[in-house]
Every structure is written in C-alpha cells, then in structure tokens.
Amino acid sequence: MRFSDKIVTISDTAIYRDDGTVELWASKVRACSRIPAIVATCGSYLLGEEIKNALHEVETLDDLIDGMREFVADVDNDRMTFAIAGFRSGAPEIWLGSTISGLPFQRRDDVHLGQPPISGDDLARGLGPISGPNEVSVEVLAETIITLQRECVVWPGFAEPVHLVGGECHLGVVRPDGASVRTLLTWQEDKIGEKIRPAAVDWNGWRRSHAVQADPAPAANAPRMSRQQRRKAARASRRAA
C-alpha cells in the first residue's frame, strides 16, 4: 500500500505443498540493510530465499531493481510473485511482477496491490465506510486486510479450494529513512502438515474493536463520518448503554 510518506507491505508466512497443506513457515519479505526498501517474494520458497539473500544488501534502488529483473528473466516453471517497495529522492516507488498471472515486472502506480485482491466492499465489511486508509492506523488497516484475505478461498494450482493465508502476519514499513519488518499477528491454530482452516470472523465485533464503527456496518449509501465523528458517536453510545 502506497502512502505519501511510506509504503506498507502485508504478508503471511505459510509455504505450501501441492495439496494445499502447510509445509513450513517462512517470511516472504526482507528489509534492505543499506537503502530504504523491502524485497518480497511469494511462491517457491527456495527461489524466494535466494532472491532475498542476494538483494537485501544492495547499495541503490536501481541495483535492487536490476537484480530482481535478472532473477525474473531466469525463472523457468516456478510460480512466483516478485515485489520491491522503496523510496527514490523522497518519493515512494513500487515494482511488481508475477509469473502466476502473467504480470510483467515493472513499476506500478496502484495505491493498493494484493493477492488475493480485496475489493472496496470487502474493506467496508472490515472497517465500515471509511473515506481513505489514513482514517485508521497502519496496524488496524493491515490486520483487517490480511484477515479478509485469510477468508479467501483459492482454486487455481490446487486440487481443491484452499485458504492460503496463515502462520503469521508480517508488517513491513518503508520510509525515506529506512525500512523495517515486524510480526503483527500470529494464528496459533495453524499447523504444519495441515490445511489452513480460518475461524469465522464476527465482522460487526471487529468493526467495533478496530475502527470504532457502529454495529451493524452502515449501508453503502449512508453518509460518511470522519474518524472524530465516529469516536464521538461511540463515546455517546457507551454513555447511553
């Protein structure tokens, strides 16, 4: 996700076998040590580790991009997604490509890029009718998006539909002065050797605890309230209870 002052990456740690069961847990993102950038891969665990190990100590963003291009050019039959998030002269820059969808590796201007994709209706289910991502904290936004993605069922590449988001949620943040990656959520119920089976989410309760939204979520055509208005309404509701 691109903001004016930062780029945020959200990823899980599940690596799968062909039957959709979890083979191991591993981070899919790594902060670069010498430039404000993050390298991310999804797909082949071994290739992903090779890419992150080779590129996380580069000296410039252009070196990082050129290095990723070399790996992309050498991919054979691996189903991979490649991503770079960094800053150039104080401006955020995102590069993304995928052999899974045939998406060429190039610079992207989208504000939000994700797999599985999350629609505006999905986000409203998790956060209510917010007017933009700055209305909630980065942590709340990341927790909500990855929990929505955890619900998604994916079919292509597997014998039957499977859930693909599991293990831990890693939050990466890139700013002009550096990058960091930390663990935001852990799903203790997920086990190696088993398929991901996410518990049902009470989204009305989620909105109350994460975004100070009314319960149930307002209709799509309901007037939008600012964050301050929602907080004021929530305090009034608690006093009346």
Topology, number of strands: 10
Shape: globular
Distance between the termini: 38 Å
Name the strands of the widest sheet in spatial order.
4-5-6-7-8
Radius of gyration: 19 Å
Number of DSSP helices?
A: 6
Ranges where pLDDT stays below 50 over 5 or more residues in a row are: 213-227, 237-241
Written as H for each helix and E for each strand, in order along the chain, the element string is EEEEEHHEEEHHEEHH
Average pLDDT for all residues: 85
Helical percentage: 25-40%
Beta strand % = 15-25%
Sheet with the most strands? 5 strands, antiparallel
Which structural class do you get from the secondary structure elements? alpha+beta
Molecular structure report:
The model is unreliable at 213-227 and 237-241 (pLDDT under 50). The relative contact order is 0.18. The protein is globular, with a radius of gyration of 19 Å. It contains six helices and ten strands, in the order βββββααβββααββαα. The chain has helices spanning 45-55, 61-74, 120-127, 138-151, 203-211, 227-240; strands at residues 7-11, 14-16, 22-25, 29-31, 37-42, 81-88, 91-98, 103-108, 168-175, 178-186.
